[in-house]
Each structure stands twice: as structure tokens, then as C-alpha cells.
Design a protein that fits this description.
- The protein is of the alpha/beta class and 384 residues long.
- It has two domains: 2-120, K Homology domain, type 1 (Ribosomal Protein S8, Chain: A, domain 1), CATH 3.30.1370.10; 125-378, P-loop containing nucleotide triphosphate hydrolases (Rossmann fold).
- It has twelve helices and 16 strands.
- It has helices at residues 38-42, 47-55, 73-91, 98-110, 116-120, 137-148, 162-175, 202-220, 226-231, 263-270, 297-304, 325-341, and strands spanning 2-3, 10-11, 26-31, 58-63, 66-71, 125-127, 130-132, 151-155, 181-186, 235-239, 251-255, 278-283, 311-315, 347-348, 352-353, 376-378.
- The strands form four sheets. Strands 10-9-11-12-8-13-16 form a seven-stranded mixed beta sheet. Strands 1, 2, 3, 4 and 5 form a five-stranded antiparallel beta sheet that branches. A two-stranded antiparallel ribbon has the order 6-7.
- Helix 7 packs across helix 8 (202-220).
């Protein structure tokens, strides 16, 4: 990308090198290098350009490979930065989509200091003709934490890729021979309904509870090889109750739907950790299916293990939803509804809240302080 005037970009709205006064309109011109297709950048029928125009209060005009952005200085600067990121993605061989553009815009507005192009080009696993990558900054922080810590908790709403990314990291670790097996587990708790008697063998009875884990496996491993790997014990999918009494060495262990564990089950599971293993625990603390007022082990563990070295808590939010756009809107609507109806305390058993935010201040010296929505916290690095 080439700027057409001063530092850092051409501004022709009467501004000085430091930019025009706040509130005045400015103009930024960005020239796209000839090697990049404008159709790839702007989308078929200008689909991506319309997404960009809908996301900003600025006028965008395209003439050949020159893009002129008119609007408030701050807004025009973000639009120009967006085109830089999109050009970088094209240079890296990425295919631009409306979803990718919609995810990049909030990253730029938050000014996190991390380039969206670096986030969206981080390859986790390539399998069956597709590559699995993080799609948001918080997702990248989550997968980086898995590399750096022995135990990682990921808490967030539906559709944020908590389990899927953990599965991809597990398969990659197995392929790289960093571990000798993958163990996938979740509690067998019905989601707010009673299914009654289920026919068949024990494995046939528990299969419906574990089906989402199988679905993710089929996305990442040749389906024909899965039965062989499971028969050899290289991949194990089992209900949480089967973990009791075991020591799991040289394994990548994922506990899914952890919000449906009791405090006792969570302790039991975490103490299965053996040498050369790592654990990822995922859950949505707003969708607890435990009976009555039973406290969720995922809520309680946040207070118990806060500040313990080599344990990391990653929190995703509605901005990290990578399903249909409406899923993010639904999550936000439910959060707003809960906030209106929670009352003054909003407390639930286990010293937690249904939104997963604990009501207590930072630890002395600031260690373990929460960084706000979508923040991640951890201490130390994974033991070598």
C-alpha cells in the first residue's frame, strides 16, 4: 500500500502535517499496489466495500486502485488502517470475506496494539483442505496461552470457539508428538430437560452427550482413521465420571461443558493431571444445567485457583462469537435481560454470578486483577 502524501498519509482537507483540528473533515488517500486485485479487496459486486461503508461514518470513493476516504480524522484513519490490514491479508494468501471484515473493524477500534492480520493468519491446524485459525484477538490470546501454560480455563458464551480451538491444539500436539494421546471428556448432564430411559449399551447411552466432541474430531482428522485411533487408545472420548482414580500422563486433556461440573468433580478432574500432560477446561457460565441451587465447579474454581502459577484464565465474550451474526446479538440480548432482572447483588451459589464476573476487587499489588470483558489472566508459563 502506498500513501499519496505526507506522513503518514495524504490529507487534503486543509490540515497540517499534524492533522486538522478535531471535528473537521479530512481526506485520506490510499493506493493499493498493482499486484492486488481490487475485486479480491472489495468483494464481488463490491460486497466487502458495502460492509466497510456500513461500519464507518465516512465517505469512501474508489477510482482504479486509489481509495479516497473522507470524514472525521479519527474515523478516516481507522478506515485507512483497515485497508492496510486487508491488503496484508491478501498478500498472505488469505481470502477476504464479509465476516473477516466485520471482525477486523472492532479490533482496530479497540486499538489493542496487535495487528488483525497477525491474528487472522495464525495457523493452528491444516486438515482436509482447510486451515483452522483464531478469528478474534481474544481467541489468539487463548490459543497462545495453551502453548504457554499447563492448565488453561476458557470461559465464554456459545459460539466463541472455546472447544473447537482447544481440539485443534490437541490434534496439532498429537501430530507433532508432543503428547501420545488425546482425552476428551464432559459431564453427562441433560440440558434443561429429562430424556428418560435411553436404550442400548452403556456407550450408546452416553454417546448423545459426547456427540459434539465427535463432530469436532471429524472436522480435524480423517474420519476413517478415528475408529483406529480410538481402538488404540490414542484418542479417548469419555464421560467425566470415567476420570476418577486415573493419572493421565503424556496427554492433552479437554474438559468441555465444565459449567456443569460440581465443585467435587472439578477438583477430581484437575487432580488427574500427570507428567507431560496439559489440560484445557472450557465452559459457558451462563448456561448451567445443574439441578436446583447446586454450585458450578467452574464458578468456584475461579476463586480457588486465582493466582496459582502456570494456570491461566481466558475469557471470551460476544465480540468473539464466530457463528451467525445473530448469535452475538442473542448473547448480548440475554446479558442485557439478565442485568435488568438480576437485582442489586446478582449473586449465585459459589461466590459467582451468572455472567461469570466475580464481585471482588483485585489482589494486593494488582496481581490477578481482571482486565475487563474478554480479558485473560494467567501467572507463569507451562512447566518444561
Amino acid at each position: 500500500m502506498t500513501d499519496t502524501s505526507g506522513d503518514p498519509r495524504n490529507r487534503t482537507g486543509g490540515g497540517t502535517p499534524d492533522g486538522p483540528p478535531a471535528g473537521e473533515a479530512t481526506q485520506v488517500k490510499v493506493v493499493i499496489p498493482d499486484e492486488h486485485s481490487m475485486v479480491a479487496l472489495l468483494g464481488s459486486g463490491d460486497e466487502l466495500l458495502r460492509v466497510i461503508e456500513d461500519s464507518f461514518d465516512a465517505d469512501i470513493h474508489v477510482r482504479g486502485n486509489e481509495i479516497t476516504i473522507s470524514g472525521a480524522p479519527a474515523e478516516a484513519a481507522v478506515v485507512a488502517e483497515l485497508f492496510e490490514e486487508l491488503t496484508a491479508l491478501l498478500a498472505g494468501g488469505a481470502e477476504l470475506t464479509a465476516g473477516a471484515v466485520e471482525r477486523i473493524v472492532p479490533m482496530l477500534r479497540r486499538k489493542s496494539g496487535v495487528r488483525p492480520a497477525d491474528v487472522l493468519t495464525l495457523d493452528i491446524l491444516s486438515s482436509r483442505g482447510r486451515t483452522i485459525r483464531p478469528k478474534t484477538l481474544n481467541q489468539k490470546r487463548y490459543v497462545d496461552a495453551i502453548d504457554q501454560h499447563t492448565i488453561v480455563f476458557c470461559i465464554g458464551p456459545a459460539g466463541t470457539g472455546k472447544t473447537y480451538l482447544a481440539m485443534a491444539k490437541a490434534v496439532k500436539a498429537l501430530q507433532a508428538k508432543e503428547v501420545s494421546r488425546i482425552i476428551l471428556t464432559r459431564p453427562a448432564v441433560e440440558a434443561g430437560e429429562r430424556l428418560g430411559f435411553l436404550p442400548g449399551t452403556l456407550y450408546e447411552k452416553i454417546d448423545p452427550y459426547l456427540r459434539p466432541l465427535y463432530d469436532a474430531l471429524h472436522d480435524m482428522i480423517d474420519p476413517e482413521s478415528i475408529p483406529r485411533l480410538m481402538a488404540a487408545g490414542t484418542i479417548e472420548v469419555a464421560p467425566l465420571a470415567y476420570m476418577r482414580g486415573r493419572t493421565l500422563n503424556d496427554s492433552f486433556i479437554i474438559l468441555d461443558e465444565a459449567q456443569n461440573t460440581s465443585a467435587e468433580q472439578m477438583k477430581m478432574f484437575l487432580t488427574r493431571l500427570g507428567f507431560g500432560s496439559r489440560i484445557v477446561v472450557t465452559g459457558d457460565i451462563t448456561q448451567i444445567d445443574l439441578p436446583g441451587t447446586q454450585a458450578s465447579g467452574l464458578q468456584i474454581v475461579q476463586d480457588i485457583l486465582d493466582g496459582v502459577e502456570d494456570i491461566y484464565f481466558s475469557r471470551l465474550n460476544s465480540h468473539d462469537v464466530v457463528r451467525h451474526r445473530l448469535v452475538s446479538d442473542i448473547v448480548n440480548a440475554y446479558e442485557a435481560y439478565d442485568a435488568r432482572n438480576r437485582g442489586t447483588s446478582g449473586r449465585v451459589p459459589g461466590n459467582g454470578r451468572r455472567d461469570g464476573i466475580r464481585d471482588r476487587g483485585p489482589r494486593a499489588g494488582g496481581r490477578g486483577a481482571s482486565g475487563g470483558p474478554g480479558s485473560s489472566r494467567g501467572v507463569g508459563h507451562r512447566a518444561q
